[in-house]
């Protein structure tokens, strides 16, 4: 036996041991998750096989109203609408923000070219339905004739095939030491690729039964990623660099300590042979878990799906809805009460509901006596109770999931917008652990990808990056370049290298929100509304506005043409930025001045309206006073003294406040003394009879017409009607007028 054979044997033994340990640890959680997933996703799985067969044999409905699937889809689609974005940020003094921007472009480009959305969606579905999902990062050569490697994000559709290190406790799996993936492949395919030795134990039915399936002629192929540590001495050199290789010149060593070097090794094997093994490009496990609801009981870990605790209410809801259908069906059947003698030798009474005409024996053959006819029995039903029980079961589902109907798009007309938002927020918070755990896992995806970029893109090359607007550009990386150009500092230069990806530490931050397309649509609407109030924006930055409305057609050419016609100070970088800011500040000051002028104009308009209203009130008072005078002139002399006393009393109650009098006394003369003249004015006061005797007929008609036109309305009595007589009384009533003016 060669050394290689002995090594392969050791590898096989170690992988089998680790795989068995992981399978034993995850067995209960995977079984529970599989039951939950099948309960929601597979038809007729919400009834046990025993109950379904017994009910079908008795013609009892076994209906399934899969309410849980609707709630699951809501959570899954919510994650699709709010995509997570992986962003790199510089950590130490060697890292550069410009390089971080390059990393962000590489991350987005890898996600787009790999179809990472499919991998993320599959992981979320695994969490919602079964409690756990996985995302895989694979590194391969760009083409068969190339030595350039690039990463891809792959989808794991079957989370039950992945067995993570049982000692891993972090939600992103960053502390895992190994992971195993099992896949069942046809025996013939393995022989074609790796030869007969790869399945040499297939013919022996007693060997490796867990790795062989003789019925399906398939063989289990396992992949294992394992972190391996090797103790080494780490040296700190005088120039600040570190190395594991001891320098030949001891004077170059500033410090040293015992450390370790870590590598990630990848194995691919069957139950009888190691097919491939090599070092992974970075010392990190490229299989990242996404957890659902994780609960620890001591050292025992339970991973629950979103629907696990709502399965019993779902079963109860199906039972009551099936019972409702059964009761309705029974209510449609007619039952009869009939004697044995009346139904003797008549086959239709075995199943009366199949016949339209029913016969019965009217006379007893033995006694020749008439028999009672059949009687239809009333339908017995408990439909109301069943309906209430079904509604209660459905409410139990909503309470357990804490996702109310208002949060699922039901009738919301009776609720305010704030109440609807609170219900939706409550539903989101109830299952926020799914989104939060996904963010943690995708952050680990970003860390692994950045490590791969720093190893795979270590030489000078041109790479494509993708911006947040999904537009691509080509950038140079690891290219020698001067630190300055035209007296300006160049961004992204580290140790004379442009966009050096191989140095520096970068961390990952996650941001959750709508996609760039949704943000762009919102920005368009906001800019459209802003232009209506600030049209100067179109004069200062028309090229930027066109970029905001760019749909990828001909607007780029239009933007470039407009730039040529603009003031160069508005489009220059560096010093031009301060000039642009100055122009913007100038326009902002002009806008503030315009707003102040508008406020002053509005105040003046309000003053004009008040003045106009006062003039209107004065004219109205004059007209009403004229009517009051005409009325007083027709009052009998005997009633005048009573009227004077009433007016005097009213005017006493209408005295203005003392502070008014003090203020007005500075600019006005004191009011005239009040005098009441007993004598009537020239012409006198007449009774209606005297007036008719002394007036000519024509004058009498004119006065009657004037009285009809000036007759007061119903509202001109009391204080208002008496005050109307102030301005236009005759000379005998000047005293009242003076009081009114006061």
Automatic annotation (TrEMBL):
Coiled coil: 577-611
Assigned keywords, A-Z: Coiled coil
Region (Disordered): 660-742
Domain of life: Bacteria
Biased composition (Low complexity): 684-716
Name of the molecule in the record: Portal protein p19
Organism ancestry: Bacteria, Pseudomonadati, Pseudomonadota, Gammaproteobacteria, Moraxellales
